[in-house]
Amino acid sequence: MNLFVSFKYLLALDEQRHFGRAALACHVTQPALSNALRALEESLGVAIVTRGRSFAGFTTEGERVLASARRMLREHELLQQELRSSAASPSGQLHIGAVPMCMPIAARLVGMLHDLHPGIVCTLRSMSSSELESGLENMVLDMAMGYPERLEGTRAPLRVVPQYTEHYFLLRRASAPSPTGLQKGPSTTWAEAAALPLCLLTGEMHNRAIVDSAFRRAQVVPRPAIETNSILTLALAVVAGRVSSIMPGALVDAVQGYGELEALPLTGPFIEVPIALMVHESNRLSRTLEAALDFAQGPEWLAQAELHGNLFVASRPPAPPPGKP
Fold it and tell me: Would you say the pTM of this structure is higher than 0.90?
């Protein structure tokens, strides 16, 4: 029995919560994965998996084995990176999670990082804020890109590396298409946006909470025509139908090839949301993570993040004269 292989199967089962999907993720047959886990149970002398007609979770002992498996696999990866690479030429795995709204920027990050360090093999996953939290705490992720305000007060001590500031835009069909791509319209208010048929994210997503908070500050209640948990749908519904959408600058940047669309900066209120990379503070850094953090704090990358995080830089409106609201 290869202990590290069995541990990888165990972590895949924890992530997938299904024997068949865990086997597919590990590129083995389901019987091979199940047999390896039974052999691990026999070797340790405890039941690890609660079995029924399907996967039913882990036993109390299994949770302890799972936690140890995470630590051992991480130390194994750290040792391999130290033996096979150097600080100047890092190589090895790097696991990054990002909230959906940050995926266009996170994709640029991993692309540029790989160009700089070809030995780094990045795995980038789109995840919810709660999944980022558990991923960092359980050492499934090396770092996460998302909303630091969302992860304040979590059990995991986090190191926060600011990246860019998110601003918001109304995306709608333009009156006439432009051959040069996405058009910029005049500023509009959240109150005006609320009167339109909107395609918005579903309520469980943190970005929807940000949008709803802006509407409340504007003292209006939107009535979405479409709700979705897909960021792609936010844009394509506008392209295909008669709805508008509300998007942060990173997604506006991703649709700049659509000349039939225009983006209008949203004001009243003017929303600014910080986006950051987060790392578990207590984790020993791998060579790949050290290289990624060094790159992510450099002026060249930060300028790119700010540029593509807000294709049309939204300007903060001037403050009202004293005595006026």
Answer: no
